[in-house]
Description:
- This protein has helices spanning 49-55, 80-103, 134-142, 146-158, 165-178, 185-190, 195-204, 221-228, 234-246, 250-262, 269-278, 286-302, 309-322, 327-339, 346-355, 363-375, 391-402, 405-415, 427-444, 447-457, 466-478, 485-494, 501-512, 518-537, 549-561, 565-577, 584-597, 600-612, 618-628, 633-642, 644-660; strands at residues 5-8, 11-14, 18-19, 37-38.
- By secondary structure, it is mainly α.
- The strands form two sheets. Strands 1-2 form a two-stranded antiparallel sheet. The protein has a two-stranded antiparallel sheet with strand order 3-4.
Amino acid sequence: MALPCVRLGAVRLRAGASLRCLCRRSSHEAVPAVEEIDIPRKKTWDKTAVLQALAYTVNHDPTAVSYIFQDDPFLIPSTYGEYKLFSMSKESGRNAAKHIVNMYPHLFLKDFAEPHIPCLMPENIQPQIEGVSEEALNERIKLRRVKESVDLFDRLLQGGTTPTLETTNKLLDLICVYGDREPSMDDQENQQDDNETETVKNENNSLKRTPAGKKWRENNNAERIFNLMPERNAHSYCTMIRGMVKHGAYAQAFSMYTDLLNNRLTGDVYTFNALILAAPDTKTEFKDKSDLIMELLNHMVLQKVTPNLLTFNSVMKSLRRMGPMMKNMAMQTLMEMKALKIEPSLATYRYLLAVFYRSGDKTSQSQLLAAILEQVRGKSFTAKDPDDYLFFSEAMKVCLEANDLDLAYGLHKLLNTEDNWKLIGKPLNEFNYYSKFFHIVCMMENADTALKWYRELVPSRYYPNSRGYQKLFQVLEMEDRLELIPELWHDVKQFGHGFTDHLAEEVLYLMASRKQNAELQVAFADVATTINSAYKLSENHKTPMKESAAAFGNIAILLARAGRLEEAWRILKSLKMKHLIPQSNVITELLDGAKAAGSSAKAVDLVQLAASFSLPDTTQIAERVLKDFTLTEEQRITLEDLTPRSGSNSNSDSSSSSDND
């Protein structure tokens, strides 16, 4: 049978042959020795290799929303609150649908999928084995029915049947995982079938604050069954220890570990990881805590238990809770990891940064983060610890506190290396990361660069809050790019911040700070009108916008500069009803508008309004009107009545001059 041929450019070879030279040479020319290249007969590809290759050809679209909303275009969020609500609702709906499918599988018998996808079909979560038997007990343990499993275990004992050690250990695993309570729907979704993964989750969540009613109860079913066991092995003790640590019974866990040693048994690596996490809660002095951790590590050596990544992460996590005094021990732990050729995960670096944190000292953390980024540059990470997804948001916080833009860019480059973006975590962590990154860009970069990042991140990666927009407006103020305010204010309203009073005051202040060309003043006046409408609409809200004289004064100024005197006049008169007193510059701006329009009546009304507000500059305003406007005799008398001080001063001046004569 002839071998198939493979064509490589101009060279035709048979599969399995060796390629010695790819260039054509003359017969008299010496051919140098070239290393042989073996062409494999067959290349084994991953099932998703084609999809992965296609995925890398698609670039990021900054104008598109997050991929999780692509299926529901009418529910695309416009604010961060909606983003968080919709993402949580979608996940909750998915869990609820899966729960219904599994609870009532007889309603979903038809399979339309081609090819057949087993993981999408309903699982049978109803018990099929009736009666009192060990097989029925194993089935209920597999279905994670805590109460039914415990009841069936007790009925077996009452009937004179003792379950095997393996079955009893499985029951202990179930009870210790859920704390002798029925699992909720979320627990069932998050629980893994693999025992090792389950143990990893337990030990890493052990020291988190448990809600009231979910702590380890004295003499619960786990302890009762453990005491009833005729024989126990290391698995029995290790399960009890991990369950006690997970549910906050740290002293009892160490007491159980002592019983394990007294029975000449050895613990596994996950048991030691749990005990290391619990060590800081069993001692009061720092030295005693660190000594206990070292003692546990020495026990691992004596019992020939090989540590894994989570062991060292547990040490780092405990040292983080003990503060900056543990810097040396943290660095020794990191060096030990390298000696054992255990690659640190992102959670390892997160704990290391936390150990070096000291209030008021921003240098040590930033220097450490710079060294970490230098070491992991260009490296791709995968999730190995449940806390890996917290690294990027907390590292960006270090960059922001240190005001180190280069460090922030280096961290962002690491995030976008290959698939590291998948480790940014949940929507809240993603928001925290991009919020801090955008803030440091606005503080340290020019307006063009800040706008470039704004257009790249919004709305695909980041929904700005009011503080983020405030930082961006400050950048525009520093570089005199106020012409961009109308465009950005449209985004502010779209993202749900149009009713934020302090942001509205900031925008009004910037637009009124200096005069612009006529076209821009018209655009500013339109923005001011929308803000004024927002103040009116917010009166019906539960939390209305806080009104201020400065905000309404700036609205009146912007309307007057655009030639909309009647609207500006109405805004100014509304301040009297709101018991707000405008600044004198507001009256001055409206006088300029009245002078440009040649309206002496409006000028007199402004003086009367200033007098009703008891402004200290009322006299100077009246004198300006008398000087710059053509008034009737009645208007002049009205102004002279409003400025008695001015008249008395002139009379006194004339009398003193006559006396001098």
